[in-house]
Amino acid sequence: MAAASAWGDAVPPSAALAPTGAAVPAGVSAVGLLDARLSGWYREDTGELFRGVPIGADDVVVDVGCGAGVNSVFCVRHGARVIALDRQPRLLREVRRGLAAADARAATALAACAERLPLRDGVATRLVCTELLQHVDDPRQLLAELYRVGGVGALYLLSVPDARQEALQQQALPPDYLEQPGARRVIGRDAFAQLVTDAGLTVLEHTQYGFFWSIWWALFPACGVELDDPAHPVLDHWVATWHALLQTPQGRQLQQRLDRFLPLSQVIVARKSGVRAQDRHADPEDTTDAAA
């Protein structure tokens, strides 16, 4: 998943990319993946990237701001044609490796600016844009591009960090990080829903997830470890505590309540229901915009 905190991707790609039946690394990756799946992500049995967003062989998925490609790889494993877009060459190289490992023959990873997608109108049946709207200069322009690229009836999976989690991070992050330029936008829950509806989309579900990660990221700065090897007693104890909680009879119910109270991110599933005058219908096999 592209969910992220101020420190980077919240779900280690090695966990979320694990195919059905594969061994998942122990520790934070395994517990993070379990938490995500209980929250609605990566439903291998139903082929849903997130609940209400099924992925299949008839789908063209456009993943904008694809990051390490976790969502893109899930989609190609479930038969979709995928166009993964990001502006960072390093991330695109990682995406291509992930797609190659998934034996994706109908997938493309392209460098692109989110505010001007190099795709024709109406080509996508599924559009994924996670943890990106808070970073761009004009979220409305990005949403307008997402609307343009989606076909009638297309499903949209959108997420941004939750404002409460952002406030927590402000207390946990070291001063030198807070002094860095380029602070990102904080998008409240009402504002997020308004942005999506103003873009012409119909909101089907607006929910939150990731209390587990909110606490993990709040603890992380104090541990003095690197993100690629986050072994530390404080973090390990938190991971073990959360995993034990999820095994209790009331654990899932408590997870849902805490996810609403202090989530890592908020998620909107939306649909493009109508046709605007400027919408055109293109050959779904011809996805790129020759003028871009």
Query: What fraction, in percent, of the residue positions are helical?
Result: 25-40%
Low-confidence stretches: 1-25, 276-285
Category from helices, strands and their pairing = alpha/beta
- Per DSSP E runs of 2 or more residues, the count of β-strands stands at 12
Order of helices and strands: EEHHEEEEHEHEEHEHHHEHHHE
Shape: globular
The CATH H-level superfamily is Vaccinia Virus protein VP39
CATH architecture verdict:
3-Layer(aba) Sandwich
What is the CATH C-level name?
Answer: Alpha Beta
Strand order within the widest beta sheet: 8-7-6-9-10-12-11
Could you name the CATH topology?
Rossmann fold
Observed structural traits:
S-adenosylmethionine-dependent methyltransferase activity; transferase; 292 residues; SAM-dependent_MTases_sf; seven-stranded mixed sheet; Class I SAM-dependent methyltransferase; methyltransferase; 11 helices; 21% strand; alpha/beta; Rossmann fold
